Amino acid sequence: MSFNGVFERRNRSAKQDAIAMRALANNHDYILNGCAMTFTSTTVTIAPGAMIIGGRIINFDTQSTIAIDSPTANGYGRLKLIIDLSLTESTETLLQAYTEWDYSGTTVFSALTQDDINLSDTDYECELMVVEITSSVATAIERMLETLGEWTQGSDGNLEYVKHASGMIDQWGSIGITSDSSGLIDYTLTLPIDFEVSSAWFGQGYLKTTDWNTAQVFIRQYSASQIRIVVTGGLAADSLYDVRYYCKGY
Questions:
Q1: Where are the domains of the chain?
Q2: Looking at domain 152-249, which of 3.40.50.970, 2.40.50.140, 2.60.40.3940, 3.40.50.720 is its CATH number?
């Protein structure tokens, strides 16, 4: 038989199930249920629940308390869940998945290893939580793994965004921009949250002004964190305009 499925008396591998689970999670990592994460000055606690990491279901059957090992004096600590399929697995204890800390002076860390462990690769890392560290103790949670089905919302002044559980991001806002001596606007705006470069993307904009009907507003993705706003036609030179934008992507 050249195909298989979830049926009585059929055996399926962890990789076969993980391929399907990864697709259902839109190639993202999430908390599925439970797994509330809290912290003290020296530990992080994960409540019972389940996560989907690299397509693999990770169950926390009991509360897990993880020490913040050898923290930096001041900066940030990142708790990672690491899957290493090159390790020998056990029928009694999960050995191919474990947690590990790394540290940085800022909220930016080295890139995670996220190979396709459901084909031929063996290594996958997921960020569970980032905590702020002051005088060698944890003082605040900077960010943590999202829960499937939830969405996050935030703002930076007049710039707003919503990030959906599917990974889709909506961003919108208004900004005052001064036209140049030729009555043109060419402005690069840094957004509150990054899009993926070259992702499926849509943007539009308009001017909140009396001469909007003669102007053309173009919104383009400039980089992962920036959009380029270009306005041509009918603008007064060296004048302030209220530019509104909306963009959508991953």
A1: 14-144, 152-249
A2: 2.60.40.3940
Compute the Cα dihedral for 147, 150, 151, 152 and give only its sign: negative
Comparing 32 with 152, which gets the higher pLDDT? 32
CA dihedral 14, 17, 18, 19 (to 10 degrees): 130
- The answer for residues whose C-beta is within 8 angstroms of residue 123's C-beta and 6 or more apart is 82, 83, 84, 85, 86, 113, 115, 117
0.70 exceeded by the pTM? Answer: no
For residue 215, the tally of other CB atoms under 10 A from its CB is: 20
Residue 143 and residue 182: Cα distance in Å, rounded? 44
Half-sphere exposure of 171 (CA within 13 A, CB side): 26
CB 242 within 8 A of CB 206: no
> In 135-212, where do the E strands start and end?
137-144, 152-156, 159-163, 169-178, 185-190, 201-207
Question: Span 22-29, mean pLDDT?
Answer: 85
| Measured distance CA(89)–CA(97) in Å, rounded | 9
The mean pLDDT value for 101-129 works out to: 94
Task: Give the confidence band of 105 by pLDDT, cuts at 50, 70, 90.
Answer: very high
Q: Which helix (H) or strand (E) holds 244?
A: strand 240-249
- Which residue type sits at 177? I
C-alpha 163/C-alpha 154 separation (Å) is 9
Say yes or no: domain 14-144 is CATH 3.65.10.10: no
